[in-house]
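Appendix C reproduces, verbatim, an entry submitted by the partner laboratory led by Prof. M.T., so that reviewers can inspect both the input and the predicted structure.
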Amino acid sequence: MANKGEVTSRTVILWSIASFVLVVVAIAFFAPEQLWSSVTKTAFAFGIGALPDQEAPQLKAEKAPPPQLKSEFDALVKNINSASDLPVHSCLVDITGLNGFEENWYINLDDNKASLYRVDGGSDLEKDSRVLNNFKPCTIVGSSATNFYKRYLIADEKLTIDISPSEKTPITFSESNRYRYLYKNPDNTFCAFKFYDENSCGPPKSSGDLGIAAGCKSKMPQFESGLWMCKDMPLTNALPKSELAAVDAKKIADAIQKGISSTADKCLVRYDLLSLDSWKIGLVKDGSKTKFVQVDGGNNVGKLDVPSVDAVPCIITETLGTTDDDAKEGNLGPSIGLQRIGIKNLGGKYKLTVGNKYDGYDNDYYFNIKEDSPKYSAVYKADSSHICFLPLHRDGNGHCDKATNYIDDDCYIKDWVDKEKIYECSFLDSLDGVFLCDDEHCLDSPPTKPWRKTTFDVDNICNVKPSDEDSEPDGDKICGEIGSIRIIGNYDAVLYENNNYGGKEICFRDEGSYKLDDYPIAPGNGWNKDTDSVKISPDGTCTSPGVTT
């Protein structure tokens, strides 16, 4: 049995332990942070844990990017990288999808990096970042704004102007700043557009320092002079200069070769429109051939990968005859062989450079191709070895005028091409039949109007309409007017004095042209204007050619 003193001492100890436990429980319940702090400090006293000032800061809850904006950010990066990887330039990148911005959220484009972040308490908190391939940001402002306006926003000025960025700075998009396009330059810089408050679309103010007038947005991206989206741009427009120059040179070379292969002469050979931009192509005489080179800064920079052609460079600078009426007929003067010819784009027109003769902006010379009129893209075959350019000049009076050292473009466009005074070589190659011509027009090569071509018998020249296979241009009639004929192909022609194959007759059987007055129908009178009907027969049926019976 314990002593009374031992019991009292044990009771005191138990009450003390119980009181300490109650205090700890109370602190843990009412002041847990103070308790934890005390515990960690006590633990540190025994070498456990970290100093108070080494503890990680307690951060506020992270705010995730708006889901729509995050998705649009991913699409933006993809669009830019796709455009960067394409071998194209001078085109637009579509960024119209940035509609998910919320307050304090931003997208920043810097050198080779895109960032999505929000601003909180003056600090930028980056939430996502991506790599941009070979990307440099810029802004269209200053001289680049002026040049962009001239190149793309003026209908009458299709100028080849470099839109070199005048301000290379990061691009930031936000809820209040998110215009829908970037412009890709040849140096792979991507420019944002800067706009100032102006309802009309006029030349940029203050030398472009304010950017482009907001009124121009209504013309974009349609643009007066055309501007491709990068993803839709034909890759041939984006080849390196030498490769694209070769594409253009081959169009010319193919046309020249077609002319050489044609059996016709004094005719036109068409070719596809050129893409001439900042490069210049040279045609250089190489013996009896022409080779093609690229020219830069006045110097040949290398032979283009285009086969040489069996013809020498040449031009034709005038028409035969002395009057405007002579010029309208398209009877061209002789070809002028040259050592070299340059062709280039200058002021929106494709120019010839022969020495410095036609090389100027103020004097309105160009060769016979206009980018808005593919039907006029052609070279002229003078003879079997000369396929020539025609130096044209626009005098502005709208009439075909006789000229020296150049061709009035009104003659070429309005009379020779539109009125078919000069035919395409391919058309002449396909001619097959007998031409019946007014006066001596069948002696021309090719026959000149008015004429009638036929491969069938005609019992009444005046009253029988030509069949679909035959032709009589522009409604011209040769009733009682046949003065010459031309046979092309394996045909014989029998001419009759009267309708229904009556009266005297005469036949011709060899390919060639015949002046009818050289063949008498009666003493002192030739067959000129005496043919009223004709029969067309297979070659070989005419046994007494040129003899009237």
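The first strand starts at residue 91 and ends at 94. Additional entries are available on request from the coordinating office.
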